[in-house]
Amino acid sequence: MQITSIRIKKLNNNKVLGVASVQLDNCLVIHGIKLIQLDDNRRIVSFPNKKVKKYEVTDTGSYETKDEYTDVVHPSNPEFRKYIEDSLFEIYDKEGENVNE
User: Fold this and answer.
1) What angle do CA 31, 35, 37 make, to 5 degrees?
2) Mind listing the pLDDT tens digit for each residue in 39-82?
3) Residues 6 or more apart from 25 whose CB is under 8 A from it?
4) What pTM was computed for the model?
5) By the 8 A CB rule, do 20 and 11 touch?
6) Domains (range + CATH), the chain
């Protein structure tokens, strides 16, 4: 699978550097990929996720609910994740302040 298009909207937020959309093989578009700067200056991408309710059975047999986040879409192997991360940050760095959706 190859990236055929990338769009990045830079943000003025010290943790979230921008939000990207990636098109794969001119067939599939993933919106809402966040480019994030961690406190230790590492940069990562966060794939789209949503909050869902998780139901757990307690010792008494009743249910307890908790909110947790689950990925909507994500790479299935580390090599593809690295490919997407490297591609996004290459464009982000190359375009400087000129990248906008």
Assistant:
1) 160
2) 998 999 999 999 999 998 988 889 999 999 998 999 999 999 99
3) 1, 2, 4
4) 0.79
5) no
6) 3-98 (3.30.1120.40)
